[in-house]
Design a protein that fits this description.
The chain is an alpha+beta fold. The protein has one domain. The protein is built from two helices and four strands, in the order βαββαβ. Strands 1-4-2-3 form a four-stranded mixed beta sheet, sandwiched between helices. β2 and β3 form a beta hairpin.
């Protein structure tokens, strides 16, 4: 399964790459041959950006394997961050 991670929307909105600690929100889609793209949802995770994205990626891949048969591409786009202090 191919994983596409992108932060283009975040960079266009904020003018800088995502980093730091906070509540991160990601838009997640899955592609299935002959069926097209399925929007999985907007999923949030709290932590450092890299850890939050990894957590969401693992969740979406698990969901794609169990619920969406034949998924060949998982696309995850960084949408927003809300600052949250530990």
């Amino acid at each position: 399964m191919k994983i596409q991670l992108s932060s283009h929307d975040y960079i266009n909105t904020h003018g800088k790459p995502p980093r730091g600690y906070g509540l991160w929100v990601f838009a997640c889609d899955v592609y299935v041959e002959n069926r097209g793209w399925t929007f999985v949802g907007r999923i949030g995770a709290t932590g450092n950006f890299a850890d939050a994205r990894k957590q969401v990626k693992e969740h979406v891949v698990r969901e794609a394997k169990s619920s969406i048969g034949g998924a060949s591409i998982v696309a995850i786009e960084t949408m927003a961050e809300q600052v949250a202090r530990p």
